[in-house]
Amino acid sequence: MTLSIEPDCALSAIVRAMPTIITLSNLSKTYGSGFRALRDVNLEIRRGEIFALLGPNGAGKTTLISTVCGIVNPSEGKVTVAGHDIVTDYRAARAMIGLVPQELTTDAFETVWATVSFSRGLFGRPKDPAHVEKVLKSLSLWSKKDNKIMTLSGGMKRRVLIAKALAHEPEILFLDEPTAGVDVELRRDMWDLVRELKSNGVTIILTTHYIEEAEEMADRIGVINRGEIVLVEEKHELMRKLGQKKLTLQLEHPLAEIPAPLAPYGLTRSADGAELTYTYDAHDEPGRIIALLRHVDEAGLRFKDLQTTQSSLEDIFVSLVREAK
């Protein structure tokens, strides 16, 4: 596939200008057992964006998706899809949505062609063999179109689930852990497909345990924990605000202890004394690093190399969830 990726700053500006397509207002869900899976969730999804919803197991990700898709009834609150209420205008709202669930639930004895074509008909769409063919070819399923689902590998079955979700040409696609249990190559192929769908105007909502998926693909990140939205932020802004950086100095001679003049910097010394590490926020003034290096020199320390690293999205996610407990 030929892909065109826009610069991060331009992309962020475009995403911010997009109108809202899904609105969740004070959404709560309490199951019959008394378990409250969602707690007063307020969230807006923008048309044409890739929104990644992250959270630990049991955080409420699947319940939130199932509620928006009309599979689970909300206990309180309201959800609209392009202005259509999911309860009072269910048919119009659901017709706009494609869902790829976590579970590999497929019609084992049906052929790939039959099950994808049937999914299109479920939403009242007229037969369109050309569209079904296009979907199957985009997912590398065309050669398998006459195979029964039961004969396919797990990765191919996952592709069939995506094909079924795309059969009725939805404007919104929910991907609930779409790459769970698939190999790295197939995961990359799916990422390419998601980007192509986005380029065609499809809004993508993705839940994943693979943080690198969100880091590579998402325009915005939402973090949910214990049924509550902890944070929603532009991905690059989130990395800028919450990402920590580390400056590591590899010393020429090991240190037994950190010199007193360097104490204000909160440096950490490696176990062998051969490295000093300075941890700072991404928005700290560059002048502070210059001052640190000057004080290192004044303390008579010599270093043979230095390197900087920045917190990954996974580091930020773990920190946010820990704080929310």
From TrEMBL:
Keywords, alphabetical: ATP-binding, Cell inner membrane, Cell membrane, Membrane, Nucleotide-binding, Transport
InterPro entries documented for this protein: AAA+_ATPase, ABC_transporter-like_ATP-bd, ABC_transporter-like_CS, ABC_transporter_ATP-binding, P-loop_NTPase
Domain of life: Bacteria
GO molecular function, a single term: ATP hydrolysis activity
A Pfam family annotated for this UniProt entry: ABC_tran
UniProt keyword Transport, yes or no: yes
Keyword set includes rRNA processing: no
Domain ABC transporter: 22-251
Annotated SMART domains: AAA (SM00382)
Name under which the protein is recorded: ABC transporter ATP-binding protein
Organism whose genome encodes this protein: Caballeronia insecticola
Organism phylogeny: Bacteria, Pseudomonadati, Pseudomonadota, Betaproteobacteria, Burkholderiales
Record gene name: yadG
